[in-house]
Specification:
This protein is of the alpha+beta class. It contains 6 helices and 14 strands.
Amino acid sequence: MIRTFLIPLIAIAGMLFAMAIVVRSSQPKPPSLPVVMPPTSPFESRVAGSGIIEANSENIAIGTPIAGTVDRVDVRVGDRVKAGDILFVLDSRDQNSQLAVKEAELEAAQQSLKRLESMPRPEELPPASARVEAAKATMDDLQNQVSIMERVQDPRARSEEEMSRRRFAVLVAKSRFDEAQAALALLKAGAWKPEIEVAKAQVFAAAANVQQVRTEIDRRIIRAPIDGRVLQVKVRRGEFAAAGMLATPLILLGAVEPLHVRVDVDENDAWRVRAGAKAEGYLRGNRDIKAALAFVRFEPYVVPKKSLTGDSSERVDTRVLQVLFSFDPKDLPVFVGQQMDVYIESAPEGDKANGPGSPAMESKK
């Protein structure tokens, strides 16, 4: 009974089950929907490119011309700054102490010049005039004595030696009177002009030294070069800030009103992009976030395409034309550094490369 009915039934059931499995597995699977629907081009003829959002001033990497320890940082990420606003300050205690010394030297040089320019002092003139009068009185007295002795007729009442001595005394008194007069004139004339010029030169040199130290202090105050927004801050108080170009800038700054999109267009399609072409950009990850783009300019040098994967072994064998567009972000949730899928209205495939508005024509203009 079992051999007659059960075993054939089991075999038939197995065959039916196998056939059902084969039929089900051979049916095509429905395509799976993408996690995020890709954007669609609004233009009938278009060129597609990958774009990255950047500041309209391009991203400015702020560094320092002098290495030193950071004393303070005056900005935070997202702050809006004006040209000339302080971003961060390096330690300048050494320069401040030098400035105090140089300012003291400048003050001494200025006072020395002031003393020379104010000569003579009013209180110095009366004593000098008195010395002139005293010398004149002495000279007149001696001259009078000589005159009296010369009027004596009796040679026995005077000796030639005495007369000579008195005449020489008059000459000495006259010389002292002349000396006193010259000293008074020199005092009234004030400082010698070359001395004043030397003092002025010393003041100028001292002022230049002060300005040099102030410049050194000011070089340690890093300021914003333009009006913009702070995009990154990679420096903290107490850290050592190295001078020169760094792989990671100390502060990243840029003007973000409006924003720019730098679009890489494959060199094979570059001829189809016209100056002033319309374009639309769609934010990666959400095609509903889009913006109308306004043409800004071509970067006239075709460059190798940059890889965004970071894989050092990846080979880049494509060159791209970079096209810049601008847009007003308004309330769009977009940030500098994000990617956008950009569609650019282009010339139809049959148009010639040197048509009006093409990059070639633009370069000729």
